[in-house]
Amino acid sequence: MSEDIGEELQNRMESMTPRTTFDIGIVGDPNDIEVKALRYAFTKPGVNIFQTGSQYDVEDIISLQPAITFVCTKVEVNEDGLIIATELEDQVNRLMARQNGGVITRSNLTPDLVDRLANQHPKYVHCPNIYFDEDSIMAHTNVPLLYIGGSHESANAVREIFLRFSNMAVREFALMSAVEA
Question: What is the pTM of this model?
Fold first, then answer.
């Protein structure tokens, strides 16, 4: 009988304990430098990182319901120089439809795609890659300027996430609309 009371008390305490971790999802090729840099940047106590096994599968991330998900899916450029990002757009739409957290794209996208995603999803933020001279984790996590585009509320929230939960050394944040980013 006392074991039942102890178990019941433990269950009550667990349900009353506030969530003490910040959960982040990452969608992208695990060997990609941007994905590696994000994993490194968010290795702080209290941060849980969930990463898909492939750059195309978002179902595991959806089931875990992280606070934010970074989508780092590579986009293709066709022979005419046009960016083909249908897979990335599908991933963002599926994530936004089936989870409560925000979605941040880290791939370089066309303004029309960014505008379309931003108009469809208030919690969508575009934080484009900056082309670096070197492909090192340090170059991706020590940046002089980080562009964050989205609604005012969402862009500020992402800025706060970088400040509170990441190890990134960002000298300055530029908050703007998603298209401007």
Answer: 0.85
